[in-house]
Amino acid sequence: MEPLRIKDLPVTDRPRERLSLLGPDSLRSAELIGILLRTGLQGASAVQVADNLLNRFASLSELSRASLDELQQVRGIGFDKAVALQAAFTLARRIASEIRAESPLLDTPDRVADLLREENKSYTVETFQAVLLNTRRRLLRVETVSQGTLDTLLIHPREVFRSAILANAAAVIVAHNHPSGDPTPSDADIRVTRDLIRVGQLLKIEVLDHIILGQRTDQRTKDYVSLRELGYWAGC
Questions:
Q1: What is the pTM of this model?
Q2: How far apart are CA 124 and CA 131, in angstroms?
Q3: Parallel, antiparallel, or unpaired for β 171-177 and 206-213?
Q4: Among 124, 228, 99, which residue's Cα sits nearest to residue 177?
Q5: Cβ neighbours of residue 4 closer than 8 Å, sequence gap 6 or more
Q6: What is the pLDDT of residue 13?
Q7: Which superfamily, per CATH, for 6-98?
Q8: Distance in angstroms (rounded) separating the CA atoms of residues 79 and 87
Q9: What is the Cα–Cα distance from 109 to 82, expressed in whole angstroms?
Q10: Quick one: CA dihedral 195, 196, 202, 206, positive or negative?
């Protein structure tokens, strides 16, 4: 069987053309990786090879940490493709480090969402993060506290405040993603938020907000919600 070529696919199935027409956010992770890989192997498209990669490594985070040897164990990934993937993930980490090194002022939900948006797009399960701030509401660092399943996340206040205490943070903003794309807080999200507010009051480390990241839609102009803006700080 002849290899499947990108130009043989309908325009809607060509990742490069779709990116050009609709923008990179319209593509799945496998499609973006497929653009980096360029070609597949023995009838498989580059996107199919990318799907195999994601199945092998379970998440983009795990894939980004894979060695050259581990990458090449996946059928369709040779040395050149493995090097291209490592280069792309390393650049992404360096961009994130540069952004954090600038110690941005994080005094609005918009600014917090801007800081976390790109990294959270890569998560396929709920991932809880603590954004640690100094007394002037400038970023100290972002800590990944916990990862859950597609729609469930278990978090304990001690895990959040351990990081805050070690960083000598004056305040913390917590955040997590909803892989479903709908950032509406669940009952569990609300309970965790109120628990964290109370513990923060005892420790004199203020919990400023809880940001939940999702995706924009025609009906939803923002891709996140702020639980403070929704009123969940009232009475705490």
A1: 0.59
A2: 20
A3: parallel
A4: 124
A5: 40, 43, 44, 45
A6: 57
A7: 5' to 3' exonuclease, C-terminal subdomain (1.10.150.20)
A8: 12
A9: 37
A10: negative
- Considering the chain, what is the average pLDDT of its residues? 86
118 residue type, one letter: E
> pLDDT under 70 in the chain at which residues?
1-13, 40-44, 99-102, 149-153, 236
The pair of structure tokens assigned to 78 is: 């040779």
Q: What's the confidence (pLDDT) of residue 236?
A: 65
Check if the beta carbon of residue 3 is closer than 8 Å to that of residue 42. yes
Assign domain 103-226 one CATH number from 1.10.10.1800, 3.40.50.150, 3.40.140.10, 3.40.50.1820.
Answer: 3.40.140.10
Domain segments of the chain: what residues? Answer: 6-98, 103-226
**What is the per-residue burial (b if ≥16 Cβ within 10 Å, else e) of 127-158?**
bbbbbbbeeebebbebbebbbeeeeebebebe
For the chain, what is the radius of gyration of the CA atoms? 20
Summarised one tens digit per residue, pLDDT across range 176-205 is 999 999 999 999 999 999 999 999 999 999
Tokens linked to 140: 């100290």
Tokens of 118: 């790109």
Q: Which of 111, 57, 121 is nearest to 86 (CA)?
A: 57
